[in-house]
Amino acid sequence: MSDDSVDFLHSGPLAPLKKWGTKWSLWPVHLVTACCGVELAHAYASGYDGERLGSLNYGIARQTNLIIVEGAITRKMARVLKITYEQMPEPKFVIVMGACGLKGGLFWNGYHMVRPSDVVPVDFFIPGCPPTPEALLRAIRSLQEKIVSGEARNTIEFEKYDLSKINVRGEQPLKPPSPKHYSPTPPIKVDVPKEVDWSFGKKLIAELKSDLEGLYKSITITDKNRIAIQAEKDDVVALASKLSKRFDHVKNVNVIDIPHEYSFIVEYQISSYSVKELMPVVVNLFARIPRNNPRFPSLAVFWPSADYLEREMYDLFGVWFEGNSAMGERFLLAPDTPEFPLRKDRKLREEIYSEVE
Amino acid sequence: MEEIVLDVPVQPPTELFLPVPKKFLEDAYKGDDYLVLVGPQHPGSGHMRIILRIKGDVIVEAIPDPGYVHRSMEKLAETRLYIQNIPLFERPAIMDTGNVTLGYVRAMEKALDVEVPERAKYIRVILAELSRIGTHLYDAGILAVFLGHTTGFMWPFALREPIVEAITRISGARITSSFIIPGGIRRDVPWNVLEFVRKTTFVLERRLKSFEKIFIKNPTVIERLKEVGVLSREEAIRFGLVGPFLRASGVEYDLRAVEPYEVYDSLNWEIPVSDEGDSYSRFLVRVEEISQSISIIRQAVNELRRIPEGKVISEDILQEYAEVASADIRGFFFRVFGELTLPLGEFTSLTEASRGTLLYSIISDGESNVPYRARVITPGWYYLKGFMEALRGERLADLQAIYGSFGYFPPEADR
What we know:
The complex is a heterodimer of chains A (357) and B (415). Chain A has 357 residues and is an alpha/beta fold. Chain A has helices spanning 3-11, 15-23, 37-44, 75-87, 99-103, 116-119, 133-149, 199-211, 236-243, 307-317; strands at 28-29, 66-70, 73-74, 93-97, 113-114, 124-126, 216-223, 226-231, 249-258, 263-271, 282-290, 295-297, 320-322, 346-347. In chain A, 27% of the residues lie in helices and 19% in strands. Chain B is mostly helical and 415 residues long. Chain B folds into two domains: 22-65, no CATH class; 74-414, Cytochrome-c3 Hydrogenase, chain B (Orthogonal Bundle), CATH 1.10.645.10.
């Protein structure tokens, strides 16, 4: 299209008609990125009826002209947002909903978060966690006004603070001090014994002890319905093959990073769906492995339900589960995320506490 | 130990395509099956990608690619006070606010060994069951969107309005209430609000009957969902399904009955179980759970008549503030909870959230007032494996029906 015809479209005699048409046909593409989608659904359902403003959710990006980014955009989703935006025909608009979309909100220092304004040009932000449906509809009204008048208008003015006074470098002690206190080299113990009134547990422990003779280091009752079995890494497979006769699924695969003891603790919490008495019992099978060579046998052969949990733990901690075919691949994390982010030596930014007059 | 900063700036994406793993491409090129990529942008609730291998139009294998809504909650929890993590851990599934916060708070209470006042227990149950009804209705609405049934979307969301209103009157927030705190609830609920909650259940019951005619017993819906995505009892156990989806496959497992918490063991209710294990029975089990929850709420409100108002937070937690703050913690919140420290050990709580088992495991070092490690596994993450297996051998057109029947909610699964 030549420049003349574009000019004619935007400022010719028919321009008001075009603006009027765009104003009443703002169709948002379906991009429910996170939890704010709950309130978006309310806004377009019978309670608030967003359709009366000429706006209706539509599935395909090619026939829509509005993106409502509903909350958090992750590193993995940022590319999708960009692609979706590029697919849409002109004129197109972006409304960002929720605190996460502004500056990260509750997840402001998360390792997987992106600001939508870094990825696409944003027309309106809606504050709130989550914003109410009324706020969303007000944003759509504001966008309609912007289309007609050509200039955006704030509907909320926030109080402004001078952030330059805040000492970011930490050269002087900050007031008030952070309420958090971390222990630098804490002891970590996952099998702290507890005296409980649980007769079935005592019976079960006696059975387990005779069954697993010589394979475990210790068996402890940590709470009612909770048993912890400590083992060596090499005995875990033998233990799992015996335990899998009683317990049929995995509730949790967990890794705890203890850098000051140069080790990881790998936990498998197992339970049963088939035997009624064993249903509430959760057995925690755990072993310590060295931190510089984190390898652990995969127990997904005994419990297929552990498969995705193991892949997640590889993603977050870098513990290599030998035997799981998907090791070495990213599962949850985006390709450009720093690797193994949940290890303790990976640090997030922390908030700055400061007094404001 | 060298510290690595995770705060790496994001480069705006320049390549406008999503990478497809090479190994799938090569296999598809050599074999006679197609590779179909569903998502990440698709008309569902939340985003994920499913990579399908297809022969004709039958799904041979479904490979998940989650993580589009992974908001790094477990790491963030390690940088916040125990008490600041309540709203954080509410965010996986905000429509299920009662159950998700209850799970985290119960893990803390297990560690602190506090007894919650009876009145608070009943109000917690009311909040949890209201969220349960709300989530089941939410997923029914999303299922209707998947099936292209717009009226079926409008009805459950209209039904959610009175629930949202009830939660607002109880807690002050429409959806994210964060109302449950260690030792009780934030403040007492006055009698007129409880009466409103009780009346809401009658409205729900009456309108659900019309919804049943419009959507649940609609022949087209039955045709789309019946005998689709079947998981047998053995498969359900093997792949570790949870919640209503496990019960739809014939396993009577509900954590409210298996390991009773709060006051569930003193109330009368049943566990709906079905033997078919198909998409329709998964949906019906959840519909049946709505009427059980309605009955639980009514019983809880009736029980609350005999418990005097006033004390809703445990004295073990409040200590010197017991007299001033036991009915309303406003003004004392940080003074009471700022220095909250859990004893050494690992504390695991299991909660029956709307979509199934919700696990919180807090590992505390006994010295810091932030968790050393907090592990969360949401129901969506548990049943992802079963969901992928249910797709195997089904037709491509049935993908939406199975997706909807699981009510898979990526923000919840990815955390």
